[in-house]
Design brief:
It is built from 10 helices and 14 strands. The chain is α/β, with parallel strands linked by helices. This is Riboflavin biosynthesis protein.
Length: 310
């Protein structure tokens, strides 16, 4: 998959894609349906996704609480697994945000990227002040020569599939409900960073990762599936992870600490993808380290049983 970040400098071979347009935070089942429509609309054209970085919501409200389900890198990885050939990950800046709906259609879709067909959700809005809607987009397509397909909003179990609903499920400690809408486990991806190495002392060495900038799931302990994406220990593992601020040790900044079962080795600097499978319990502050270790033993036993049944 090729990533193109500037619509004004696009190689001829990267033009002419059939592309889905949106933010694709989480790449949930609704997003996947939109991408599949783009694939079917022009099967001989490269399959593309047009999205933005930073997320427009981050651009317009930089001080708002973190809301993203995945980083740009994790989104790109997921899109590549879906068979996307061209990821047009455009830099969302003042110039792009200032384009009128017509200017966006002309300068970005037609002149810049040369898209042959685009697919958007029924609630898609675009251009300065979100002034353009799907009816405007269809009119521009007819005028400028690109096809437009409008995808209907998907539902599952009577619930509209949306990033908002997925965030709610994660906040309430319901990762399986989130996965039902995502079409895959919710994953936290990132580089393993140095910690205070308390886990080694306790007999549970963990791989620590920041969750800065991401929507925090319910704090607590999870049964997890772990994929080490690079390095000498690349592969898939089972484990248990704690998400939160470590109240036993008066932590302040939330992170995720993952213990890989039956693993020995150094993971510092490696990139991990940690899938939340089941929420086991909330964060707790114990009366002693012995009580903490006893609970960690129980957490790992419970996690092993859950993951073995998958």
């Amino acid at each position: 998959m090729k990533i193109i970040r500037d619509y004004q400098y696009v190689r001829p071979e990267d033009r002419g894609a059939s592309a889905a347009i949106g933010n694709f935070d989480g790449v949930h089942l609704g997003h996947q349906a939109v991408i599949d429509l783009a694939r079917k609309a022009a099967p001989d054209a490269p399959l593309g996704v047009l999205t933005f970085e930073p997320h427009p919501r981050e651009y317009f409200a930089p001080d708002a609480p973190p809301f993203r389900l995945m980083s740009a890198e994790a989104r790109a990885s997921r899109l590549e697994k879906l068979g996307v050939d061209r990821l047009y990950q455009l830099n969302f800046n003042t110039a792009l945000a200032s384009l009128t709906p017509r200017e966006f259609a002309q300068k970005v879709i037609h002149d810049g990227l040369g898209l042959t067909h685009i697919v958007v959700g029924a609630d898609f809005c675009f251009g300065k002040g979100r002034a353009g809607n799907v009816t405007d987009l269809q009119a521009f397509g007819a005028e400028m020569g690109f096809g437009v397909t409008v995808a209907e909003i998907l539902e599952t179990g009577g619930i509209e599939i949306s990033s908002t609903a997925i965030r709610e499920a994660l906040s309430e400690g319901r990762p399986r409900d989130a996965a039902a809408q995502l079409g895959h486990w919710h994953r936290i991806e990132g580089e393993v960073i140095g910690g205070e190495q308390r886990g080694r002392v306790l007999g549970y060495p963990t791989a620590n990762m920041s969750i800065d900038g991401l929507h925090p799931p319910a704090f607590g302990v999870y049964a997890v599936l772990v994929e080490v994406l690079d390095g000498p220990h690349k592969g898939q593992y089972h484990g248990a992870a704690s998400v939160g601020v470590r109240p036993m040790f008066d932590g302040q900044f939330p992170n995720i600490e993952t213990f890989l079962f039956d693993f020995t080795g150094d993971l510092y600097g490696a990139t991990l993808s940690v899938a939340l499978v089941d929420y086991l319990r909330p964060e707790l502050k114990f009366d002693s380290l012995e009580a903490l270790i006893e609970q960690m033993d129980a957490d790992c036993t419970q996690s092993r049983g859950i993951l073995a049944a998958l």
